Write the structure tokens for this entry.
Amino acid sequence: MVNLSRRSVIKASGVLGVAATAGALPRWSPTAFADPAVESRAVSTAGTTLEAVGVPKATGPQRYRRIVAGPAWPLVVRTELAPAKPGRDDRRVGVASIVQTTDIHIVDAESPVRAEFIHLDNGSAFRPHEKMTTHGAITLVQRINSLPGGPFSGRAFDCLVSTGDNTDNHEFAELDWMLTLLSGGTLRPSTGDPNRYEGVQVWGSALYWQAESPMADIYKRRGFPQIPGLLASTITPITSPGLKMRWYSVFGNHDDSVQGTAPSGIGFIDEFYVGGTKIDVPSGQAQIDRISAAFRTDPAAVPRLFGELMTKGPVRAVTPDARRRPFTTRQYMAEHLKPRYTGPGPVGHGFASDAPTSGITYYSFPIAPGVVGISMDTTNHAGFVDGSIGDVQLRWIERLLTRGSRTYYDATGRKVTHAADDTLFVMFSHHTSTTMELPIPDPEHPLEARFTGKYLVEFFKRFPNVVAWVNGHTHQNKITPHRGRTAAQSFWEINTASHIDFPQNARIVEVCDNKDGTLSLFATLIESAAPYSVDYSDHSVTGLASMYREFSYNDIGREPSRLGGPLDHNVELLLTSPR
């Protein structure tokens, strides 16, 4: 059963209307009350999609649309797993407040190891806005820092978890930018020649948006503008304030593989990263189709095909840069441990001090007293996009969920101990339950059994203290109930869209005890702090981040389904309490 809550929030005018979008929801009339003590369920909706949402302007050139402020997304109460008992708002106690970012995809758009020419077949190979990922990330950090806490519990954020694909092509340059963005500091989001952009958007090919040129490329034919100086603006140094809260990092397939697909360290492809040659658009469609197919079905063949194209051409000369060198999983964890990236902590952002030696890519961490997070590594180190989970990791998770006690220190320094069966667990991974259908062997542990997402769902149902599985990967907003044998053995899967593809969302997840035998998990979407629209002459970080969102909506490869529906946006998810 799905119910819409009635809510009101005082704005400057004293009135706020919220409108349901099209979908399976019943028709309803939004209400607005000046007295929030009577009808409002939220402590504060400011800065969330409960206040406003970016939507395309009704009119524009051809099929291109600018972005404007649209009606807020409503709060939907979902009762598939437990009833919504009256009076719970008065009894509710917030026990954890978490921010999830996912699929930020910090892109080195000038890297030689990119296959932009296959983007008509694979939209993620080239995005017209990809040179501005760092600018978009800064305004996302600004938005998160500006929020007082969970909109329904009012609880200050306990932590942030970035659920993978933090980098796009697992380069040291991208990793440095990502870690600096979240920890705070100044970076120059460009590789190669420090004085000019050297990527495909100045090559004069109609296959890509030639942003600064009047050339009638395939993007301008759809209404994309010509913006003089845009690309030059994207390579200048920028500064991120860094997050104000502790944050944790989860592995995604793009943090592990070439373009998120091909295993690294194969053949001589690693040398292509740092070299001075970049592939231009192949002269024949057959070449394009061959490498596009390899990324989908035979990732191990990608280095060989790249080598053929590098040898036979066509190619362009670019400035070599050692910072583009691809990192290994152990190096990824080692970088997180460096003092300059600690920011608000913790040291390593979840990865243990010996992780670069042990190679253990998963961990647990305290979210709040009585609430524990488990970061899983669901990537396939042999390549491919989809994931799975290894037996050793699964047995480790089983021990955490069934044995021992958990000791933490609260904000006052008081020692608090919870028995394992009294602890709530929130699981985090990059992949979803439906994108873990590839249990191929791990090259480092070829004899270890690996398991699918379907298996993992049934595994979690054994433990009443697992309340949520939070993930990304699909770039789509989607929330799924998983019903167990008993009400207490059920949990919610919360999948959030990326911050590179429209709608560029992050999410707040609040765990609340209703003191009536149920929990409420409030999942609220947020956007970056960038304005919905700016003049194209505004090349500040804020202006570029605004255009970043606009261009992502108009991208040829945009998939409207990623937006999700009202059931996947701002929701209260009821659950039987295991306590």
